[in-house]
């Protein structure tokens, strides 16, 4: 095969994997409901020059490239397409620089989120974006999907921390985008454009991220229990209306708590039907008290404030464990809609209505403080009829989020699962702008084709 001969000539032999069993293991992310094609090869890049060489060969032969990091994505964005080369970037995992004075770090895309956070903490610094997959997900993957997490209600998402990057373009050129300075407005924000592009515009080989100083005060945790999703949603809306910005405000319902208990025996299921977990990191006790008052006024059955870090970490761990705990019960179709915070109660009510109308089981976790809801539709393994009903509920929830002035994805990305919803949200004129940008940056159409647009 001419392409494979050219690939072998361009890259070291130990970087190319053709064993079908190994290649297949890299062919999809965590979105079990999204289709995956049959790749022809896997390339495990070690540096930017190897990425550049691969892109040049693929562009010449018209072979698609699907970049991937740790494979923790939830939208099918890293799933193989037929005839593609899978480009694994997890081996490019070096932290190249930590500049404490300028409060920035330069990393390769395969650096794991939590590894970066631990490394910069030694310098008294903090990298805030913290998706639930932070122990495993990579900074490159976080940038590709513009990942958020627990802290983004106050501190923002990945795009807010990416200053610059190095990228291999569709013409096989390695270019530098963005800056290292605090301010800079020279030209279009191409670095920002690549954040959230899901590998469709080029391959990120290096990222410069902005850091913050570690908070001086230990966080205070506020917990409230509610007898319904809607009542918990009203507490979220009340918090926003009161002008309170907690560093985290997470929702976990009884289905998730029960699933975590059955798996980890943490004794959480008796705490309430729905929990709101708030965190305040200003050191101001009045802010924690005000957050608790919002919970109580909205109808909390009980609430409490705590400064015990172990107790707080157990509760937030339950939030992070909810998705894998539910996966043990059957295939999970994960939503990622985001609505205005004042409409969180209405959106939660609509989600419950769709569960009833379609006869499916929907558990709920949420970054409730910024209106980012994660309904989790669980179906019995092998039940194709239930699977079809779940897909119908999934699409109905997307439509409702748009109808309420929201978006089909807050942090997971579009990938394959959200394409119809995104087209509905943006409309043909805006999609045309997307296609024009894609064509300009990827003239051969080789980067992750079929994703997003």
Write the layout of secondary structure elements.
Elements: H1 2-10, E1 16-17, H2 20-25, E2 41-44, H3 48-61, E3 65-68, E4 85-88, E5 95-99, E6 104-107, H4 113-121, E7 125-126, H5 139-145, H6 152-155, E8 162-168, E9 174-178, H7 190-194, E10 203-210, E11 212-213, E12 220-226, H8 229-241, E13 248-253, H9 254-264, E14 274-280, H10 285-298, E15 302-306, H11 309-327, E16 332-334, E17 337-338, H12 344-358, E18 361-367, E19 372-378, H13 384-403, H14 419-441
Parallel strand pairs: 2-4, 3-4
Antiparallel strand pairs: 1-2, 5-6, 6-10, 7-11, 8-9, 8-10, 12-14, 12-15, 13-14, 13-18, 16-19, 17-19, 18-19
Description:
The structure is a single chain. The chain has about 450 residues and is an alpha+beta fold. About 35% of the residues lie in helices and about 20% in strands. Strands 12, 13, 14, 15, 16, 17, 18 and 19 form an eight-stranded antiparallel sheet that branches. Helix 1 runs antiparallel to helix 3 (about 50-60), helix 9 (about 255-265) packs across helix 11 (about 310-325) and helix 13 (about 385-405) packs across helix 14 (about 420-440). The radius of gyration is 22 Å and the shape is globular. It starts with a helix and ends in a 12-residue tail after the last helix. The mean pLDDT is about 95.
């Amino acid at each position: 095969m001419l392409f494979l001969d050219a690939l072998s000539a361009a890259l070291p032999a130990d970087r190319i994997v053709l064993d079908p069993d190994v290649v297949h293991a890299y062919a999809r992310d965590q979105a079990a409901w999204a289709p995956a094609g049959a790749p022809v090869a896997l390339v495990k890049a070690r540096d930017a020059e190897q990425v550049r060489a691969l892109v040049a060969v693929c562009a010449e032969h018209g072979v698609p490239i699907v970049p991937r990091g740790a494979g923790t994505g939830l939208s099918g964005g890293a799933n193989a397409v037929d005839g593609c080369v899978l480009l694994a970037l997890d081996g490019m995992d070096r932290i190249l620089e930590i500049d404490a004075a300028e409060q920035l770090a330069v990393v390769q895309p395969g650096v794991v989120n939590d590894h970066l956070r631990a490394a910069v903490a030694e310098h008294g610094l903090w990298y805030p974006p913290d998706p639930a997959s932070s122990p495993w997900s990579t900074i490159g993957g976080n940038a590709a999907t513009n990942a958020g997490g627990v802290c983004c209600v106050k501190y923002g998402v990945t795009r807010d921390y990416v200053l610059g990057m190095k990228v291999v373009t569709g013409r096989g050129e390695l270019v530098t985008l963005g800056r290292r300075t605090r301010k800079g407005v020279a030209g279009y924000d191409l670095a920002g454009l690549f954040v959230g592009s899901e590998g469709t515009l080029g391959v990120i080989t290096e990222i410069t991220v902005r850091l913050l100083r570690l908070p001086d005060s230990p966080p205070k945790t506020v917990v409230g229990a509610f007898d319904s999703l809607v009542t918990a949603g009203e507490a979220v809306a009340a918090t926003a209306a009161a002008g309170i910005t907690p560093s985290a405000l997470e929702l976990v319902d009884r289905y998730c708590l029960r699933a975590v208990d059955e798996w980890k025996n943490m004794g959480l299921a008796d705490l309430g039907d729905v929990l709101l977990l708030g965190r305040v990191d200003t050191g101001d006790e009045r802010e924690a008290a005000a957050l608790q008052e919002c919970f109580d006024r909205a109808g909390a059955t009980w609430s409490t404030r705590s400064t015990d870090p172990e107790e707080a970490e157990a509760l937030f761990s339950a939030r992070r464990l909810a998705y894998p705990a539910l996966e043990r019960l059957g295939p999970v179709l994960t939503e990622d809609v985001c609505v205005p915070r004042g409409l969180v109660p209405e959106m939660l009510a609509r989600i419950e209505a769709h569960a009833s109308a379609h006869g499916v089981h929907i558990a709920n976790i949420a970054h409730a403080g910024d209106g980012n809801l994660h309904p989790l539709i669980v179906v019995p393994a092998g039940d194709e009829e239930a699977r079809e009903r779940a897909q119908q509920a999934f699409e109905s929830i997307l439509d409702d989020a748009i109808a309420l002035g929201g978006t089909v994805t807050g942090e997971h990305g579009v990938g394959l699962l959200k394409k119809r919803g995104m087209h509905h949200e943006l409309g043909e004129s805006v999609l045309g702008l997307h296609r024009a940008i894609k064509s300009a940056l990827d003239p051969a159409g080789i980067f992750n084709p079929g994703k997003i647009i």
